[in-house]
Automatic annotation (TrEMBL):
Residues 1-34 form the signal peptide. PROSITE patterns: NODB. This is chitin deacetylase. Transmembrane segments: none annotated. Keywords: Carbohydrate metabolism, Chitin degradation, Cobalt, Hydrolase, Metal-binding, Polysaccharide degradation, Signal. SUPFAM superfamilies: Glycoside hydrolase/deacetylase (SSF88713).
Amino acid sequence: MNKTKNKYHPPSRIMGSLAIILLNSLLLFHSVYSSHAISQPSDHGKQNREIVVISKDSTKHFKDSMSPVGYDGSISATQPFPEWLADFTYLKEWPGIDPPYVPLSFIDMNQIPNSVPIHEMGACPGDRTGCSFDCHKCVAQDDIYTCPKLSQSFDDGPSPVTTRLLDNLQHPTTFFTLGINVVKYPEIYKQIQAKGHLIGSHTWGHKFLPSLTNEQIIAEIEWSIWAMNATGNHIPKWFRPPYGGIDNRVRHILRLFGLQAVLWDYDTYDWQLLNNQRTEQQIFDEARSWLASSGGQKRGMILEHDAHDRTIDVALELSNNIIGHDQLTAAQCVNGVEYIKTFGVDNEEYAAAAAVNVNENFIYVS
C-alpha cells in the first residue's frame, strides 16, 4: 500500500468486491433513478484509488457563525468504527469536521453538471437556471417543500437535549441528523428510532454545499450515510441541505445516492434565540400568523432545531399549544418510503454474506 500523509492507496485486489458491497449493502438497494442492471468490466474500480483528506483543519466553510446549533467539537465519537467501513476506506476511525473524499465507482464525475457555478452563502449567481433554493427559493420537481398538514421538523441533532424533546413530543416528526453528531450520540439516535420518528440526513458536518467542490459534497453525503447505517442499520431516503443550500449540481449528486431533498416553507429562525436576535414570543406570534394566513388549513413544513434547551422549549410550546399534534413526517407528507433500505441483521454480517456471493465481473444496481 502506497501511503502519504493525506492519501491512501488501497490494494487493488479487494476493490471490486468492496465496491459491490458498498453499492449493495450501503447505498443504492432500491434506487429510484435506475430500473435496469448496470454492468461494469471486471477491472473497473480495481485500479488503485486514493482517499483524499480534503482538509484536516479547514475553517473556510466552518466558522463559528456557521456552526450547527449546539455543536460541541470537544466531544469525540462513541459509535464504533465498523469493520466493513474500515475495510473499504482503509481508515480506522470516524473523521473530524472535514471528512475525507472516498471515490465511489458508481459516480461518474464527468456527468455532474458543470454549468452551475459554485457560490458562497449570500453571493448568489445572476443566472437562475441552476435553481438555487438558498438564493431564489427555486424548487425542483422532486423537492419536498411543504406538507398537507402543518408539521415540525428538526435539524442538527442528535444532541443531549434531543431526549427531552423525545420524552414530551406527542406526534411523529422528522429529525435531520448530522453524521458527526450521530457517531457522538448513537444511543440518542437509537432513541429517535425507538420512538418511531423518521430520520434523514443533514450532511456530515453542516457545510454550505453550493460552495464546495463535487468531491467535498460527495464526502459530506457518503460519511453521513455511513454514520446512519453503522448506527441505525438503515440507509436514508430524505435529505435536508444545511442553510437550504441546494442547486441543480447538488441535486444531481443527491440523486446518485437515491436521496431526495426536504426543504421548508416556514422557518422559525430559532437559532437566533441563542444570540438574542430573536425572542420566543416572536416565534409564537409568527406561527399564529402562519395559521391565520392559511385560512385555518394548517399546512406547511416548519424548520426547527433540536440542539439547545431554548429551541426545545419553543418546539414543545408550538406542538402543545399552537400547532397541535396532528402532524406528519416528511415521508408521510408525500406518501413516500421512510428509508431506501433497512437491515434486519448486523451490517458486518450482511457485508460478509455479500462478499461470499458477489460476482466480481459485474456491479448490479437494481
